[in-house]
Amino acid sequence: MAEHTKSSITIEAAPADVMGVIADFARYPEWTGEVKEAEVLSTDAGGRAEQVRLVLDAGAIKDDHTLAYTWTGGDEVSWTLVKSQMLRSLDGSYQLVPTDGGARTEVTYRLTVDVKIPMLGMIKRKAEKVIIDRALAGLKKRVESAPGSAGSAGAFEKPGA
C-alpha cells in the first residue's frame, strides 16, 4: 500500500464554514496556490461536487486531472483520481473535527500521490507535504478572513443549499 502524507491545522471557525470553503471549487484558484483552474463536471443530488477537473501546478507536479469526490456527512470529504496526464493516483481527504464547542475546527488533510514518471519517493513525499501545507495555510487564511467566520455557522453555504 502506498504511503500517505498528512498534516493538521486548527481554524478559528465552525466546521460548516470550513467545509463551505472546501466545497467551493470555483474559488480554489483564489486561495490554494497550486490549483490554477477548477471546473465542477458533475454534482450529486445535494448539489455537492462529484467530479471536478483541476489544473495543478505544484512545482515538480504539473497536471490537468479529474477527481471523484465522496462526501461523508458534513465533516469529511475524500477524493480519488479519475483521469490524469501525469498522475497514476491522487487520493486524499479532509477530515474536520469541531473543538471548543464547535467554534474552532481541527482539519486533517491526507494525501497520496503517485506519478507516471519515475520519481524518488523522497521527492514525491516532499511534493505532497508542500501541497498539504500550502492548502491548509490557504484554507485557514480563506476561512478566517471570511465575513462572520469567527465561529459563526453559515458564513459559507454548501453549493445547492
Q: Per DSSP, what share of the residues sits in E-state strands of 2 or more residues?
A: 35-45%
Helix and strand sequence:
EHHEEEEEEH
Question: Helical element count?
Answer: 3
User: For the largest beta sheet, what order do the strands appear in spatially?
Assistant: 1-7-6-5-4-3-2
Highest-level CATH class: Alpha Beta
User: Overall mean pLDDT score?
Assistant: 83
Describe the global form. Answer: globular
Structural class: alpha+beta
Q: How many domains, in number, for the residues? A: 1
CATH architecture: 2-Layer Sandwich
Produce the secondary structure layout.
Elements: E1 5-11, H1 15-22, H2 28-31, E2 35-43, E3 49-58, E4 61-72, E5 76-84, E6 87-99, E7 104-115, H3 121-144
Antiparallel strand pairs: 1-7, 2-3, 3-4, 4-5, 5-6, 6-7
Q: How would you characterize this protein structure?
A:
This is Cyclase. InterPro entries: COQ10_START, START-like_dom_sf. It is globular, with a radius of gyration of 15 Å. The chain has 3 helices and 7 strands, in the order E-H-H-E-E-E-E-E-E-H. It has helices at about 15-20, 30, 120-145, and strands at about 5-10, 35-45, 50-60, 60-70, 75-85, 85-100, 105-115. It has a 7-stranded antiparallel β-sheet with strand order 1-7-6-5-4-3-2.
Short account of what is shown:
The chain has 161 residues and is α+β, with helices and mostly antiparallel strands. The protein has one domain: Alpha-D-Glucose-1,6-Bisphosphate, Chain A, domain 4, CATH 3.30.530. It has helices spanning 15-22, 28-31, 121-144; strands spanning 5-11, 35-43, 49-58, 61-72, 76-84, 87-99, 104-115.
